[in-house]
What we know:
The complex is a heterodimer.
Chain A: E1 3-5, E2 10-14, E3 19-21, E4 24-26, E5 33-39, E6 46-52, E7 59-61, E8 64-69, E9 74-79, E10 88-98, E11 101-106, E12 110-115
Parallel strand pairs in A: 2-12
Antiparallel strand pairs in A: 1-4, 3-9, 5-6, 5-10, 7-8, 8-9, 10-11, 10-12
Chain B: E1 4-7, E2 10-13, E3 19-25, E4 31-37, E5 43-49, E6 56-57, E7 64-66, E8 76-78, E9 87-94, E10 102-103, E11 107-111
Parallel strand pairs in B: 2-11
Antiparallel strand pairs in B: 1-3, 3-8, 4-5, 4-9, 5-6, 7-8, 9-10, 9-11
Amino acid sequence: AQKVTQAQTEISVVEKEDVTLDCVYETRDTTYYLFWYKQPPSGELVFLIRRNSFDEQNEISGRYSWNFQKSTSSFNFTITASQVVDSAVYFCALSEALVGTYKYIFGTGTRLKVLA
Amino acid sequence: DGGITQSPKYLFRKEGQNVTLSCEQNLNHDAMYWYRQDPGQGLRLIYYSQIVNDFQKGDIAEGYSVSREKKESFPLTVTSAQKNPTAFYLCATAGFGNTEAFFGQGTRLTVV
């Protein structure tokens, strides 16, 4: 069965610290996609990144970076030099194709608090 | 504006009442989804639809119903059979080819 685990329920850091959010997934498929979303207090989920199962290259976008390791079924997210505006709930998600329909399975989220 | 519109933003329901949450999109996406969010439980899939006039149950469909009469619209009805409906409901859409899902701003439903 597909499953996404975000073991860190809440993390607090002081501004400018680096922080890594962990994501571990389970799937039987060889083709799948992984995602990270940010949910600010307003509630709407904001897409951050998509990674397919055949691309294990790490990605960096500004202060954000992602480390995808198939060997450990992990897709971790690092924020460098955190800022107060990074405070939000972050969700990791897995998508598999089911005869053309894609289901998105979400983890329970990690609440990040960045203190000034 | 392009995107997904959920309404209302806040909804109050009395015990025993059915209520309908609206989700409209103008992204021309085929797939639409309803998720429920409770504190500490992440997002759980209620129903999803890939094409008009077709939809599938998700993990927690009991007490909910949907329809997909138009590509743009995927309303969710929370029936009186749903015993604990107080939650934050999110509608999402996705285009062809396992793209990322796009989300609406959500509806917060409270039973009073």
